[in-house]
Amino acid sequence: MYVRAVRFTDVSAERLQELLARIEESGGPPPGVPATGLEVLFDDAQGTAVILQHFESAEDMEAGGQVFSAMDTGETPGTRASVDMCEVKLEQTLT
User: Fold this and answer.
1) Is 7 exposed, middle or buried (0-12, 13-18, 19+ CB in 10 A)?
2) For 26-66, how does the pLDDT look when each residue is reduced to its tens digit (9 = 90+)?
3) How far apart are CA 30 and CA 63, in angstroms?
4) How many whole angstroms separate alpha carbon 37 and alpha carbon 25?
5) Dihedral, 79, 55, 31, 50 alpha carbons, nearest 10
């Protein structure tokens, strides 16, 4: 599994709610994004968000990354601060 981790700054709770509503209404990723999962993390106190986009392969992650990188900044939760393209080396669920 691969994860594209994108960190945003200058994120308001209102802007994030707008983004979440659009995501929920769309019923899936944008065209051309072969994502298998999505996680949205928000730190209200710092005004930051981390978006974790899951992919089956490095090629899928690269293809999805190209679509997301070309997005209008008005469609993002804030200012893109960093993008990491990662292979998952460990996933552990604790009970």
Assistant:
1) middle
2) 988 989 999 999 999 999 999 999 999 999 999 999 999 99
3) 12
4) 16
5) -20
